[in-house]
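Trying the structure run again after the queue cleared.
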Amino acid sequence: MKKYLLFAACLFVLTFYRSIPAQDIPNCSFETWSSIGNGMENPDNWDSSNEILLGTFIFNTTTKETASPFDGTISVKIKSISQTIPLVGEIVIPGLITVGEFYVDIEAQTGGVSGGIPFPFRPTKLRGYFKYQPTGTDSCFIGIGLAKAQADTIGTGYMKAISTPSWTLFEIPIEYTSEDTPDSMNIVIMSSNPEADFQANSTIWVDSLSFDFSVSVEEQYTENSIFIYPNPAKDYLYIMTPFKQKVNIKIYNPIGCLVADYNKMTISGKSSKLNISNLTAGIYLIEIVTGKEKIVKKIFVK
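Done. Tokens:
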């Protein structure tokens, strides 16, 4: 029996807290890792399906990838692993990471995800970069759930993908069923389809996760509001506001160094263009200061 863990019913159950609230995803680029024993490591602030069953059978599904990360020095590599256990048969555990907790019950032949982290925000998208090498017709899964009062799921989004041989941007819209603000969040990434038989050796690589907090153009077009696009951008970034005004714009790299300064620039609804062709690919912070407000937003340069 290859389909070992049953996930659908518990994928977005958020009942367990273990960190301080933050607007960003913890260890979003998977740069720091810690040993969990038996030669296995987990990315800090994430749990995984790295397991040792019956004290003997090691399923090292989640590992560092240093050969070709999208950003920084490390990406996460998540792989479905198969082993044959006496009296049980062939077991396939899907590669999986979560900011909640992964659990497995070998006697019941079930497993899944529970928990999450405190998160009192309403992002509009989950974004990141991935590549995927499936076995057969397998597909990967990336999902997010947001809940209130540790129980009621009020926002979800997910995607599945087939073979994706090179680093590719994904963006997952988050659909809300309530106007409430959530208090918890979980992210689940799997190397196999949770709704089908898991396929051994299916592998997904993931890097540079982030949230998009932008709202629709109609919602943003109020006095002194500013619209920034596209994101990710290449060569040029556009800044637009419905009212003509002067702004100071600065761009910083991830360690806080100023890399671009556009002082006293006039912008309006006609879209002002910033030349960012001198910036290398990566993540930056853009700071826009008007007479009445200051906006800081994460941007991606391709």
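The longest strand covers residues 152-161. Worth checking whether this holds up in the mutant runs.
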